[in-house]
Amino acid sequence: xxxxxxxxxxxxxxxxxxxxxxxxxxxxxxxxxxxxxxxxxxxxxxxxxxxxxxxxxxxxxxxxxxxxxxxxxxxxxxxxxxxxxxxxxxxxxxxxxxxxxxxxxxxxxxxxxxxxxxxxxxxxxxxxxxxxxxxxxxxxxxxxxxxxxxxxxxxxxxxxxxxxxxxxxxxxxxxxxxxxxxxxxxxxxxxxxxxxxxxxxxxxxxxxxxxxxxxxxxxxxxxxxxxxxxxxxxxxxxxxxxxxxxxxxxxxxxxxxxxxxxxxxxxxxxxxxxxxxxxxxxxxxxxxxxxxxxxxxxxxxxxxxxxxxxxxxxxxxxxxxxxxxxxxxxxxxxxxxxxxxxxxxxxxxxxxxxxxxxxxxxxxxxxxxxxxxxxxxxxxxxxxxxxxxxxxxxxxxxxxxxxx
Length: 404
Description:
- The protein is of the alpha+beta class.
- The protein is 40% helix and 12% strand.
- The chain folds into 3 domains: 17-155, LCCL-like domain (Ferric Hydroxamate Uptake Protein, Chain A, domain 1, Beta Complex); 166-271; 275-364, no CATH class.
- It is built from 11 helices and 12 strands.
- A 6-stranded mixed sheet has the order 1-2-7-12-6-5, with helices on one face. The protein has a two-stranded antiparallel sheet with strand order 3-4. A two-stranded antiparallel ribbon has the order 8-11.
């Protein structure tokens, strides 16, 4: 998530209630988008006013992704928290932050709110200050700045309140709904459509909504994305899922493999968030700690997955056709790379896409046996047209359960 200003940041003066995204910024504060003008004169006064705020959970993980200058330092891949406690006791009354710091990250660093649940409170603007120290607290190493800045803020003690972030209780509700649905539903259409509907709106409204503070806008964006997502999921169901789930009565295995994999992919902003790769460029790989080892592990994992898929396709007799399809994909990518003055740069989502998209038709088959609702072909049974083709007969007997 790239740093940007909250849409309802404080205006020039007075008290304002802001429901902040993870990265609250106080630098651009006028609604006309022109900023605060030369020396911040349009945003005065810089002190003697307060602002109430609310932060969601898990703000500690928000970092500056693009190089950001703080004095003579260039900051990237760390929280933009400038300053901290100025006394040895590290009291809240003597803790100050530069005004362009992330509000929620600074509140966690000051010990004002909890990262796991978020929180609400009141901050006070203190005008110009100098010598913002670098302090390592609450797993956040703040940035030092040994000069003056025309605006700073601190947190008012006794104003913190427990306005909980409800995304985790809502996750429990959504998980319960989808698990019960998977266990007691045998119809592929009912299971797939209902699961997609529940998980889509959970992600769109709770676990990974847009970085906005207008709830009506969030609902509007979710509804706008629902129709194209439904079309894509219909294609996935029609061509892949329907054939794989037809006649399947292994409810527990289906819940663990299908639904579990679906939730891992749906919550990718948490499940894959610890992977220290944001962009696959040489500069970013060098800047972000642990990026090179993580990239090596991902490449090896993808290689193992590709070998496993190729083996299953070979056993099923479909490897030549799929080699032709992948050849077309590679040719298109090479053609795009060859276009002059056009840069084709992989993004942070590239490894996540490869890790989460495993096609059911090439996933290693599970030999579940009759007790799991599969009917094996008997040796004395009449030979059907399908069984005359070894690859198709294998697939007919052992249809793989994929993870999507």
